[in-house]
Write a structure and sequence with these properties.
2 domains; about 140 residues; 2 strands; transcription; two-stranded antiparallel sheet; mainly alpha
Length: about 140
């Protein structure tokens, strides 16, 4: 059974209660994708925690945890009573990833690895989580 979607910022969010993935992680991944895809633009105000929790049929603590994790990742920023907003830091993260990709491409070329194999290496790192920082 899926949770209700939201309207406005975070529209299209659906929480699948039958999924083995915890609801906060489903919400975190969906919001992060929207931010990274620029569906949610820098400066967009996210719904207040209680309102969003009600819209999605979740506990307020679940949404609060999601917001905390997105803030730790630099994707959103909380401005006290004004609320939570999509952060410009997401753009900085994208630029950092571009620089890392350019460095990786230079290493791959210097050691003679085939581009297809280089992509497989990256996919394996992303899938296994070895490319992500430790929490």
């Amino acid at each position: 059974m899926a949770g209700r979607g939201s309207s406005g910022a975070g529209a299209g969010i659906v929480i699948d209660a039958a999924s083995p993935v915890p609801p906060f992680e489903q919400l975190r991944v969906q919001l992060a994708r929207q931010i990274q895809a620029r569906t949610l633009a820098v400066g967009t105000r996210l719904p207040p925690i209680r309102q969003f929790a009600t819209e999605l049929g979740l506990a307020a603590n679940t949404v609060a945890r999601t917001y905390r994790e997105l803030e730790e990742a630099g994707l959103i920023e909380t401005r006290g009573r004004a609320g939570s907003f999509v952060s410009a830091a997401g753009e900085q993260g994208r630029e950092r990833a571009r620089r890392a990709a350019a460095e990786y491409a230079a290493v791959v070329a210097s050691v003679g690895i085939d581009p297809d194999e280089a992509v497989r290496i990256v996919r394996a790192a992303l899938t296994s989580g070895t490319g992500a920082p430790d929490r």
